[in-house]
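My current task is to audit a protein record that another person submitted. Thanks in advance; the entry in question is below:
***
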Amino acid sequence: MSKTPNCKRKLPILAKLLLERSDEDHPITRQDMQDELARWGLSAERKSLYDDMEQLRELGLDVQAKRGRNGGWYIGQRDFELAELKLLVDAVQSSRFLTKRKSDVLIRKLEGLACVHQARQLQRQVYVDRRVKTMNESIFYNVDRLHGAIAANRVITFRYFEYNAARERVFRRAGDKYRATPFGLVWDSENYYLAGWDELHKEVRHYRVDKMADIFITGMKGRDRGDWDPEGYARRHFGMYAGRPCPLRLRCENRLAGVVIDRFGQEVSLVPDGEGHFTATVDVVASPPLWGWLFGLGPGVEVLSPDWAVEEFTRQLQAVWTAYNSPSDGADSQAESAEKPEAGD
């Protein structure tokens, strides 16, 4: 009778050994298993080990046998393939919204999904040009809290801040709490944004999640989202800047068709206009990043309408020209045009 509890301990010990230390190139030999069991005060005959491996298979582990002089047993198919884990590690390592400490913690947990031999291949550094990790680790938990508020359709309160030159938090609205109904989370320009109904301004606005503090889910029912579309919202806001919504009509050279489709989606209508051009009307929010994107496309694109948008784009171009030709006079105008009209104000 005394052997029964010990026998029940064999399978979890052997499963842990296989999961942590075996792969196709590093099978666990019969002697290795017997030595590991001996550490726990257990013994196992050769035949019983074969029975144990079969039971582990029945429990769902992909236990494979490798024959030969250096043969043994190993885990074949795992929940995550090594290539998949490498992709996840790269994503975590290069993610801007995760702090370095949180990235290291997550990578160690991902390593636990592989054997020790495979885990060594996951200890790699991904270099991303000019990548700056966030200073605010609370974003990791804020995202989870916000998902809960969205699912429950509850109003939230929070405070919103910026960093000054001394890297100190400066709260907007003099530290007063914002009140909003969260509609959805948007990933744009390597940052998380919360989009939702702002109770003060009575409109949909968005906020950088890593700049939100003291998030509290109230018991108040949130506003109906209606037909709000997160994908369309993100597509209209270049760099998630606030601005004036408009249907922007563009005339582009045919070579830019792929650029326009990549930015605005396959459903954008491209209407032939002459032999080498097409026109497209896109639903956007006019802002400095939009003008910067258009400027980057060069003379191959022209803004046709609305008139106020043509004038605003022209003013932006003239401001840059002035800054380079009259440095003393243009510095202020250039700084003014570069200010970001945060939707979170």
